[in-house]
Amino acid sequence: MIVNAWRVRATAEDFDLPPGGLPFDVGLLKANRAEWLREAGLEAGTPYLVSPMFEYDVVLNRFFQSPGIRMHAVNTQFGYARDLAAFLTFLWVSRRGKGWRDAAEEDHLAYLAWRRRDGDGPRIAGSTWNREVAGVDAFPGQFNWMLGGAAEVGESYEEAAARELAEELGVHSCPRFVLKFLCDGVISPYWLGLHEVVITVPVQPDPKEVAWFDWLTEPELEEIVHRFEFIPDAREAFDRYRSLSAPRDPSR
After folding, report:
1. What pTM did the predictor assign?
2. Which pLDDT tens digit goes with each residue over 86-110?
3. SS3 category, 166
């Protein structure tokens, strides 16, 4: 039997056998399974993926046992698993059965076009795409000092920044343009427009987009951005922001 989708499953300490049983001794599968999971470093209730050919990819699924994933709530872990499964299914169905090891830049760009632009696709929001890219690029658990997303067709950078601010923090304001540069990017190069805004009202982060946040002074941020695990694009943007010739007052 072959299905046309990658599926998300949960690691279990116990499992039910089919009514007719299995054509082999399952004693080793069921005996001390909980202990075996602990020795293997697998936590019950965490996600894993199964291919359309019912294969378990050890290297791929090791991703879900990494500290960057396990630090998140279980619902968030499964969210990353579903995002990754969607990309893998796209490769399988629309890119002629291609596997994740063989995915190239053109495959990522085709996935972007289908997810965001194609009239027959889901046409997801920029903030949703950012979350999905985090899973596909294996960056969950890393930090980002920016909010953002892709500009829609006909949308200016400033309009896109204001929309993303509202979607991700629930704040309605008018971000001010600071700089634009050609970012190397993890998937492919792209133009990144950096904006800033002063927030004087309480923020309401969307839990689907923001796993954790805190307020830092600029010196504190400058200290940790090169010490902790930051998304490479965010670190490059911060270095360019700090290299501006004169200090900027975001209230102006």
Report:
1. 0.54
2. 999 999 999 989 988 787 778 878 8
3. helix
